[in-house]
């Protein structure tokens, strides 16, 4: 029955999305604007990321337009909601690339949805820049060749897995680890895999949970009886916050390592600040940075959306500026020219770091491992790409 | 062994939540043979009401519970009046589909109103951990368990000992005959929704407090599991919902604790299928011949 329901909502979503898009397309004439597509998870399971990213994208576009646009042309943004469903992501990408004829697409937030959009952008030959699709295989096809039209601004999972494993062995001197991951997401599976491959110590136990869970007491009771040095939780803050709370209340005192999915203020609220000690996670962006651009971004975001920006919004913000730089370097708004410029993009200076794209369309930048004690960010360690 | 006792404690607190929710499913089913799929979302609304009253009115746990229960009770009555009553004489599938519609309306309505993100629940109760021998029990777990027992006792009293309860039982056995005896079935049905939704509201606040996390989609999975609990115990039977809730909670925890956490949900949904095939009337159900 759930399938039927999903089917019905999906149909309704297509209808709604179609109505929304025609309104936007009605404004502005051909030629004097640059069309940019935005597709994010505005509703559904992962809408927290999608909304944060879509907000930052529209903010970046407004800023660029207010500053005179790109080469004197205003950017016209066409937005779609992917409903946190992969099928919707595929159809939104097709619509943006073929009907709306955009120069480039920003989004979606998650790896699964980005992969679903790839066949559409390949067929239409329109570049797509995902802010936070961190799964390694996103920019590669099945035989390991680079996907010609897909780029990402956040570093890939294998880099996170390697950084965390190195950090656990080096800085934390861990000899054994327990992994507690979300077995329903590509993200957690990829992270667990690279962590296991790069961690020289022993993996004492590997446990799983699913994304809609909130009670981890059973699994944690089991973990409590194991002998280990670090707990690695590849997952997002919604679950991680609860896991940290329940683990610490239960008396699990070992350091907890996490990926970039921990990077949200809500993590500390969910866990309770007194429980968030000895937590280490990889970050794309540090809120406590002194860079004027970062401060400016945080201030503007707070003013416009009355919410704290997180690294997802920071990555999405940079994604728009990456496309802007490509548009300027190309001097042309055709998708093919923009793609060419993205391929050769180098020394981009954004709020998430300075980077160039490597041959696999991944950004070459360093990861920051943030340490949290009593709910406060106390230390940040840079881990550079090898 | 100590681990086992610890897991039983974990299971009972999870099971209490399922039991509170299952009661709402079962009462509504018992009286109008409708599976109210919006019930899980009423629970979600209850959690949000608790969140807002604690944050903005600065009240403690008990007033927050009562306010939230009042709000969800009214919401339940409104849902019944607006969405289900006009379909009282339509086929059961029509009402079922409407229930799914109401569920989506509440979820997406809340996403529109409060945003999709997860938020933390204000902590008004100090979550002290009690060490009894070698196992631990938290104050929240005791509170959840205690509140559930009190609410179930109150419900049992209302249904068995009061005049309205008698009317509910009469309508559930035969609505037309009850009407001939001077009972207003619509009022009784509204009352049933009121009770069931109030319990869901209480469960919402307790869960918010226990896990410290609420979001507009939080009602979906517990709603389905509570439905399974209701079927397991025997849908339409109030003590069955309690038994079913505790059994599902314990099964989940024991599978995660001793088996493989990956197959937990598969087992729980598998139970639904087995029960429907082998014993559709549930653990406490009796086989009742259809009247012709």
Rg result of chain A: 21 Å
Main sheet: strands, sense, barrel of chain B: 2 strands, antiparallel
Summarize the amount of helix of chain B as a percent range: over 70%
Number of domains of chain B: 1
The coarse silhouette of chain B is globular
Number of domains of chain A: 2
* β-strand amount of chain B: under 5%
What order do the helices and strands of chain A follow?
HEHEHEHEEHEHEHEHEHEHHHEEEE
| SS strand fraction of chain A | 15-25%
Helical stretch count of chain A?
A: 12
Computed CA radius of gyration of chain B, to the nearest angstrom: 19 Å
**What is the string of helix and strand elements of chain B?**
HHHHEEHHHHHHH
Overall pLDDT level of chain B: 89
Structural class of chain A: alpha/beta
State the low-pLDDT regions of chain B, or none: none
* Protein chain pair with the most extensive contact, residues per chain: A-B, 36 and 42 residues
What spatial order of strands do you see in the largest sheet of chain A?
A: 7-6-8-9-10-13-14
Helix- and strand-based class of chain B?
mainly alpha
Oligomer: heterodimer
Q: How many helices of chain B? A: 11
State the gist of this model.
With 386 residues, chain A is of the alpha/beta class. Chain A has twelve helices and 14 strands. In chain A, strand 8 (230-232), helix 8 (237-250) and strand 9 form a beta-alpha-beta unit.
């Amino acid at each position: 029955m759930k399938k039927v329901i999903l089917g019905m909502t999906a149909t309704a979503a297509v209808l709604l999305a179609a109505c929304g898009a025609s309104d936007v397309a009605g404004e502005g004439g051909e030629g004097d604007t640059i069309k940019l597509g935005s597709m994010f998870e505005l509703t559904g399971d992962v809408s927290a990321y999608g909304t944060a990213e879509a907000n930052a994208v529209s903010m970046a576009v407004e800023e660029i337009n207010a500053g005179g646009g790109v080469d004197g042309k205003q950017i016209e943004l066409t937005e779609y909601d992917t409903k946190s469903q992969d099928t919707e992501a595929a159809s939104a990408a097709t619509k943006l690339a073929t009907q709306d004829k955009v120069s480039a697409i920003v989004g979606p937030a998650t790896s699964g949805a980005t992969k679903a959009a790839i066949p559409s952008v390949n067929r239409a030959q329109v570049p797509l820049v995902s802010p936070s699709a961190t799964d390694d295989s996103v920019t590669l096809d099945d035989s390991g060749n680079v996907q010609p039209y897909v780029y990402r601004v956040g570093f890939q999972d294998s880099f996170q897995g390697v950084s965390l494993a190195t950090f656990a062995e080096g800085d934390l001197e861990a000899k054994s680890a327990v992994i507690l991951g979300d077995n329903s997401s590509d993200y957690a599976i990829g992270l667990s895999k690279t962590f296991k491959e790069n961690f020289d110590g022993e993996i004492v136990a590997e446990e799983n949970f699913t994304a809609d869970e909130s009670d981890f007491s059973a699994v944690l009771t089991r973990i409590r009886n194991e002998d280990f040095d670090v707990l690695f939780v590849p997952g997002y803050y919604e679950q991680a916050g609860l896991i940290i709370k329940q683990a610490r209340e239960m008396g699990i005192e070992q350091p907890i390592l996490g990926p970039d999915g921990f990077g949200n203020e809500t993590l500390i609220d969910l866990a309770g600040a007194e429980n968030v000690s000895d937590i280490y996670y990889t970050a794309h962006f540090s809120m406590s940075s002194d860079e004027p651009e970062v401060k400016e971004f945080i201030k503007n975001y707070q003013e416009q959306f009355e919410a704290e920006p997180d690294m997802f919004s920071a990555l999405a913000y940079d994604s728009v500026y990456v496309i802007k730089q490509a548009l300027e370097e190309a001097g042309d708004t055709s998708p093919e020219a923009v793609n060419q410029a993205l391929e050769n993009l180098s020394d981009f200076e954004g709020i998430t770091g300075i980077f160039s794209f490597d041959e696999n369309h991944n950004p070459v930048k360093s990861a920051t491992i943030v340490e949290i004690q009593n709910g406060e960010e106390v230390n940040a360690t840079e881990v550079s790409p090898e | 062994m100590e681990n086992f006792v610890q897991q039983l404690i974990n299971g009972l607190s999870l099971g209490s939540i399922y039991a509170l929710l299952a009661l709402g499913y079962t009462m509504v089913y018992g009286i109008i043979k409708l599976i109210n799929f919006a019930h899980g979302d009423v629970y979600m609304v209850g959690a949000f009401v608790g969140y807002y009253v604690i944050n903005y009115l600065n009240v403690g746990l008990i007033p927050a519970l009562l306010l939230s229960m009042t709000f969800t009770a009214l919401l339940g009555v409104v849902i019944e009046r607006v969405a289900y009553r006009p379909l009282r004489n339509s086929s059961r599938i029509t009402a079922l589909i409407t229930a799914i519609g109401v569920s989506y309306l509440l979820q997406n309505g809340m996403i529109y109103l409060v945003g999709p993100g997860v938020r933390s629940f204000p902590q008004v109760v100090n979550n002290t951990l009690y060490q009894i021998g070698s196992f631990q029990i938290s104050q929240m777990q005791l509170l959840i368990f205690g509140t559930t027992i009190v609410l179930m006792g109150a419900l049992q009293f209302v249904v068995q000992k009061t005049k309205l309860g008698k009317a509910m039982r009469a309508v559930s056995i035969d609505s037309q005959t009850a009407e001939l005896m001077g009972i207003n079935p619509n009022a009784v049905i509204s009352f049933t929704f009121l009770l069931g939704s109030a319990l869901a509201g209480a469960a919402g606040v307790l869960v918010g407090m226990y896990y410290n996390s609420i979001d507009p989609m939080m009602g979906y999975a517990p709603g389905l599991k509570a439905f399974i609990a209701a079927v397991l115990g025997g849908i339409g039977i109030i003590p069955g919902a309690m038994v079913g809730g505790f059994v599902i909670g314990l099964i989940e925890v024991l599978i995660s604790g001793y088996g493989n956490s990956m197959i937990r949900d598969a087992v729980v949904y598998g139970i639904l299928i087995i029960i429907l095939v082998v014993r559709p009337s549930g653990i406490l159900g009796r086989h009742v011949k259809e009247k012709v």
